[in-house]
Write a structure and sequence with these properties.
three-stranded antiparallel sheet; single chain; 44% helix; globular; alpha+beta
Length: 71
């Protein structure tokens, strides 16, 4: 597998998926780094949750199975 060339912040991922950022925070605990979940270190010790394209696909499946399925 090739290394990812870019990632999406949680804010951008929420926009792509058409969901609230808080929902992605809640669902992100189901993902591992192998799934494309990354933490990006910023200045002053800030950390930003980010996702590869694979992680966004995984989130899309989780949403379909756990959120939309029950609606």
């Amino acid at each position: 597998m090739a290394a990812p060339s870019h990632v999406f912040t949680i804010r951008r991922a929420a926009e792509i998926l058409g969901r609230d950022e808080s929902l992605l925070w809640d669902l992100s605990d189901q993902l591992e780094p192998e799934d494309g979940l990354l933490w990006v270190d910023d200045i002053d010790g800030a950390e930003i949750l980010a996702f590869t394209s694979d992680a966004i696909d995984a989130l899309r499946e989780i949403i379909k199975d756990q959120i939309d399925h029950t609606a």
